[in-house]
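assembly run, all chains below
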Amino acid sequence: MKLLTHNMLTSHVKGVTKGYPLIIKATEVKVNELEFNAQFVSRMIPKLEWSALIQAAEWLGQSQDLPSALIPDYENDEEFLRKVHRILLEVEVIEGCLQCPESGREFPISKGVPNMLLNEGE
Amino acid sequence: MALHCGRACRQYLLHLAHDNVDFRLPEIKALLSLRNRPFDTSETFNEKSPFWQLNGLSEDDIRSVMSRTVCGKSAFELWGHGTTTDELRMSLLEYPAENMAPYLQQNSTYKINVYTFNKTLVFKDSIEKIDALDFLPFKGTVNLKAPEHIFCLLEDYGSDPYEIPEEPFHMYFGRWIADGQRELIRSYSVKKRHFIGNTSMDAGLSFIMANHAKVKADDLVYDPFVGTGSLLVACSRFGAYVCGTDIDYNTIHGVGKASRKNQKWRGPDENIRANLRQYGTESLYVDVMVSDASKTVWRKTAQFDAIVTDPPYGIRESTRRTGSHKDIIKPPEDFSGESHIPVSMAYHLSDIFADLLNFAAHHLVLGGRLIYWLPIYRPEYCEEMVPLHPCLTLISNCEQTLSSHTSRRLITMEKTKEPEVEYVRVFWVETPWSKDEIDKCKLS
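ok done. output:
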């Protein structure tokens, strides 16, 4: 699971109102090298909940030198975009789980794939 | 017919392939729309014809369309046309010489092809037709192997294979610009794909869907019924980043029984990511997840540039044919016990589309498109059965006939309004197919 996806996921456990962001508990994390695409990163930044991204990076020990708030004029800052590219697309949780912050319900991540299925009645 | 033009108003001729006929116009319109160009054609435009004249476009527009279309075979800069050889000749004589000159230079090489639709010509006749064009000021040398410029005489002998006229109904002459992407149909064939399933989408249709959806480079595309990822493969070919979800654990993880005839179990390299790797687009793979499309996992403000999907067609009880409106969905017979599906399977087919449209209304960017297949029982079909939504505008509805009484329709919708309230189901949809009819859709 990449952090771009995590940033858009929320807990859908019945009755939960504060289910975002899902807490990441990773037991295996991989960092892959992926072709840097400044355009795509620039396009995605406005769609992100920035604080949730920073939080997720911290959970994975990958927050390095990411600013805690979005910098203005980021489209032209290649160094910044490269950092965002890395955290959004190159860092992957292979094994672990996502935990609903309100209910505690855990969604397993196995071989990089989160399983978000709920049981009947949940 | 005169073609007096400056650069700005050249006419182009599109030669289209003769399959998926109903899907062609929406595809070309969508690709033109990616360039913010309208579809502008002649008064005599016939959608069923393999030859379309396009006005008001630049050569770059045409090249851009041809770099994406799987319906278009070739495109030409139209120099003349007519319903008789005299008309064609007159039309060519009226075409400004200065527009021709750059391609007829003395030190250049060229070749003239003859293409006849709905007729086979003997070699001698083709040569005669080419010779009849020698009034044109060709100054270069003929090179059949690697010419710098290719010209084409295209003749339309109508659409009735049993009534082929002596003379063509219409003739066109033009300079070849570019071919379409029909080669992708072969190179992306599901037969050669590493990971397939029973319902993997045919390559040609996947690309048509990606085009109808106006997918472009750096888009984020989502498929909520991703299966083996055929639609994501097509979208990634056009540069989009892709993600998908599916309720079936086995398919998402690429485990369980194989769909190939001589194979029992899926191998380790059989999953969606591997498919993208096969075609060199793994860098565009975002994620896939196991998830129930009826229970969205995305935060309210999560948005995609396009949603491209082939929802399950469902199974109806045999009571359908007596006119009952009971739509109970049974789990498919090949539902594997190890599939980790804990929830009840009573997902009514009409709910799938209601949820899909609602989802699209909330999770598409404004101007983004939803493309999906709607299964149809032809004897009962009427336009009112196509689901609608206040935030989505219906762009096209193309039928692919599957049998005398079943078909599926490729529906394209564009988000034109942000939702103000949480919309609930706004329509009712007939569910059409029996298990046998669904099985016919599957890969054999």
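Chain B touches chain A at residues 217-218, 220, 241, 243, 245, 247, 249, 252-253, 283, 286-292, 295-303, 340-344 (CB under 8 Å).

Residues 349-363 of chain B form the longest helix (15 residues).

not gonna interpret more than that til we talk
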